[in-house]
Design a protein that fits this description.
The chain is α/β, with parallel strands linked by helices and about 230 residues long. The chain has one domain: Rossmann fold (3-Layer(aba) Sandwich). It has helices at about 5-20, 25-30, 35-45, 65-70, 85-95, 135-140, 160-185, 185-195, 200-210, and strands at about 55-60, 80-85, 100-105, 120-125, 145-155, 215-220, 225-234. It has a 7-stranded mixed beta sheet, with helices on both faces. It starts with 5 loop residues before the first helix and ends with a strand. The structure holds S-adenosylmethionine. S-adenosylmethionine (SAM) binds near residues 60, 65 and 107. The site of S-adenosylmethionine (SAM) has 20 residues, from helix 1 and helix 4.
Length: about 230
């Protein structure tokens, strides 16, 4: 799927997530075989949050990364879950069960927080969807305190290997059908593999993170090289 303009992509992403919000969590568990839970757990560990720290889960969706931060460190002083699709956060609020996440409507390209606010800023499966990855990282870096971490978990462009080809087959042929059955929105789950195909390769994303001003950038590949977790320090 190609978009005529940045604003068309932003609008498509926003309304698409609103359409699938009610089935988002179930579909994640099904298409990853439950592995997505493990990846978020790892990302929060890599955030290296200090006791009483402040954490921003940007593009929180239904809140899984924010909930995981509170599970690992119930003593955090502030956990913010921010997203520009309110129905995703409404689904998250319905399962918050009293967990103290501060929900905020926000676009990652223009965050409503002062400079140097958070000990770590993490995004799960956001970056493929933004219209300007460099600008999103610059904004995440701005609200991170010096020495804090910026973390990016996402599905990069699959490699041109046999494994990559098999993953493409699964992602393009099986996932949209499954997504259509579960959510009634096959186009949303057709967008998912296409957005990975047009995203950066892991080494390219590391380069963009460095260009945005992050230091000590490193990444690890998960799920047979189909998912990447990047970490950088401000
Ligand atoms: C695939 S979901 C990920 C949700 C959650 N982080 C997770 O790990 O399951 C992507 C989320 O990014 C949000 N999103 C996409 N572009 C955004 C933007 N520019 N600003 C804020 N949120 C955005 C969508 O609304 C959606 O909730």
């Amino acid at each position: 799927m190609t978009f005529d303009s940045a604003s068309k992509k932003r609008e498509y992403v926003n309304t698409m997530f609103a359409r699938i919000a009610h089935r988002y969590d179930l579909m994640n568990r099904l298409m990853t075989g439950g592995q997505d839970v493990r990846w978020r757990r790892l990302m929060v560990r890599e955030a290296a949050l200090p006791p009483g720290g402040r954490f921003l889960d940007i593009a929180t969706g239904t809140g899984d990364v924010a909930f995981e931060a509170l599970r690992q460190q119930p003593d955090l002083a502030l956990v913010v879950g921010a997203d520009f699709t309110l129905p995703m956060m409404h689904a998250g609020q319905a399962r918050a069960a009293g967990r103290p996440v501060h929900w905020a409507g926000a676009d990652t390209l223009c965050l409503p927080f002062p400079d140097d606010t958070f000990d770590a800023v993490a995004s799960g499966f956001l970056m493929r969807n933004v219209v300007d990855v460099g600008m999103a990282l610059a904004e995440q870096l701005r609200v991170t305190r010096p020495g804090g971490r910026v973390l990016v978990l996402d599905v990069p462009r699959p490699p041109d290997t046999l494994g990559g080809k098999m993953f493409r087959f699964y992602f393009h042929r099986i996932v949209p059908r499954l997504g259509g059955l579960i959510s009634g929105q096959p186009d949303a789950y057709g967008y998912l593999p296409r957005s990975a195909d047009s995203f950066l390769r892991p080494s390219q994303l590391a380069g963009v993170m460095e260009a945005a001003g992050l230091r000590q950038v490193r990444y690890q590949m998960l799920m047979l090289g189909t998912v990447a977790l990047h970490v950088g320090v401000k």
